[in-house]
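yo

u said u wanted the structure for the complex thing, so here. seqs first:
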Amino acid sequence: MTASVTAPGEARTPRTGDPGTGGFRLDTSSLHASVTDPALTSMTLLNDIAGRYPEAVSFAAGRPYEGFFDTGSLPRQLRAFEEHLEGAGLGPDGIRRVFFQYGRTKGVIHDLIARHLALDEALTVDPESVVVTTGAQEAMVLVLRALRRDAQDLVLTAAPAYVGFLGATRLVDMPVRSVREGPGGIDLDDLADQIRSARREGLRPRACYVVPDFANPSGASMSLADRQRLVDLAEREDILLLEDNPYSFFHAGVPRMPTLKALDRARRVVYFGSFAKTAYAGARIGYVVADQPVAGDPGAVLFADQLARLKSMLTLNTSTVAQAAIGGFLVENGCSMERASRRVAAVYQRNLRAVLDGLEERFGSGSGFRPAGAVSWNSPSGGMFVVVTLPFVADDAALECSAAEFGVLWTPMHHFYGGTAGFRQIRLSYSVLTPEQIGEGLDRLASFTAAGARLDR
Amino acid sequence: MTASVTAPGEARTPRTGDPGTGGFRLDTSSLHASVTDPALTSMTLLNDIAGRYPEAVSFAAGRPYEGFFDTGSLPRQLRAFEEHLEGAGLGPDGIRRVFFQYGRTKGVIHDLIARHLALDEALTVDPESVVVTTGAQEAMVLVLRALRRDAQDLVLTAAPAYVGFLGATRLVDMPVRSVREGPGGIDLDDLADQIRSARREGLRPRACYVVPDFANPSGASMSLADRQRLVDLAEREDILLLEDNPYSFFHAGVPRMPTLKALDRARRVVYFGSFAKTAYAGARIGYVVADQPVAGDPGAVLFADQLARLKSMLTLNTSTVAQAAIGGFLVENGCSMERASRRVAAVYQRNLRAVLDGLEERFGSGSGFRPAGAVSWNSPSGGMFVVVTLPFVADDAALECSAAEFGVLWTPMHHFYGGTAGFRQIRLSYSVLTPEQIGEGLDRLASFTAAGARLDR
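structre next:
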């Protein structure tokens, strides 16, 4: 066992080793295009840079806070789930079967998830419409796989977009069109334009991916009016909405906005949920609510039934051990993720204030930073991310310089635009830092920015 | 919580509920073909039949034995893995990160798996060539996704074939050609013929899927000479071998045959491993060894590196909680799955003898069964399956009759031939039964067979 186990991602340069001299080599040009697609390789490259500067203050990693992790919680949560099953009338054999045997394809904590959605999101969903997945990532792949029938299909997404969604589209050859995003989230006029122009080209826009609360990477949130307009637009334009909701509990204490799914009267919203940020990421437990009725399939009532079929050939079922752990987490918290997230939400709010105050101190109008006004940023009220616009190109080369010479890491935003925009923007993630580290990191960022602005690349 | 949690698969008829009258319905004809492919739907239909006859003796389920499952083992195994990490020098923060944070894409028990392969299979593999996956199923999808570049690519498999492999090909639109199988496994001449004829058609045969030990469903095993010939053939014909090895530990105590991977000097074998049958299926922990060097990809040394990229957009990483549990299982067993499997292998051997002796008693030459010789079966020396050939069509309708009127379930073999053959064959799985249940089930099977032979469909 080596330190490689502790690596947060693929942070190492690939081993050179001895993969054989001469002889058989797999020709990359003979493989599917996704293997070398930038949507899949860029995060590895960024992790590689991060891995080479372990002493740098990192605003790069979008990882959840680690301070409340406790290995002692696992046996307790497993036991809590076992008691939950006992309480539901399962005997010892049945319980052992749930824990260890091949399981129900749609999962075994679907009822607890439905209870959570009722409690926290005022969403009444049929537990049969829930498919528990190996993180929300698998759920995205399932939905995209189903929706990509042939070369005419495409999906839309607000840009900048979560790289994981872009990567999932590559695995199933689903083309993506970018929709403009403003401070209030996706631009609805642009969305309607894009749908219509795709149709004029003979294409089938199937769905639009959107993160209405504290989006990754932009931090943007949608107003209630825009949420309602988006749901209406989906019905009018005959598309699905793929709503992803990993961050909404990390708010400033104000009443949360309803999800798109809660506004969805026409079953136009497929809803992705995740426990990666509210419980822990390592379990890889997410889910999809797919309550769309289906026509033309005698063996399926809901879209969820069809997604389960695909899942049965992708991962068979989501790890029951991991489901039991997250099931116990849900039970321990009375199925309220709002309640379960309060501690960590407070950490993120504290850090968000440290970032926004720190940016104001160092780059604000009273800060004396020159060129004045050259550095700007948005001010999300929650989530895990802030976007800063710099007066120079902030690409991977700039990141390498920032890491090597100034000891501070961040994420170049162009990766979230598929390399087509965002070249002067960076994403700051503050979830795993202390306020002290944030202060130190912003000092370093200010030095880097001053140097970069002088070079004015 | 209802009894639905205990269902071993999708054994229920879909709920009719109220999916909305009128309004939006998802048109199945607008979805990817895999959604309704028989390779994905057939097992659901079979489970549905099984679910309607809970009192029947079931030779249908390919599930592992449940008698050694123990929820108390989980905290112990999690702790064993924690101690293993401590022993490797990880501090408390590092350990918590391994358990709960987003993890290394290729997994965190790769070194333990490499040790297991060295110990049990005399296989020396670079831990960097191991990708831990959400069961071997995900590994198959990853490899097939990579190998399916365009419409020219295809794979081969011995027929009958594991339905999960066929299903995985559907998810990535990979065509499959069937190769004949005899009592000694895949027909090597037919394999060479199929490869050449595909090439003559301008197609690219990429790989052949094989289970050399106690294949599912046939129970067939390959001789050492044929293994060597197959590995040589792969090199000569320039294809990969996709070796799947879930059953080899369930042998009769004789020295096991080497895996194809152990004979592979030219790195032509991609090896799938699984802990579903040796530890427990619910964890969903499998892996792939992909030590092929790659050309034309500066960011990757091994095929495993490229598979990890795909995995990073499919499930991000395999559940660390589940990996920790299986990691602890490995540690507790000194990384020997041979040793860990001894108890359950003895159960399967006992049951196999009960099935073979029971078939001989009821259908053998001295049994008085008429028409004499009309029922035959193979005699695997291990694994979980026996194939019986009946003197009449044994399809899904016959199964329904067998269940309803005779109280015995089995699996129609035609599902493993993609519906092109095997209509008079059935697969008997004996892994979850007692010898008494086997005897009772074979009595019922004899009654069903006598009735079927009289009808002589």
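Chain A has two domains: 3-17+27-68+342-455, 74-340. Chain A touches chain B through 126 residues (CB under 8 Å).
cya
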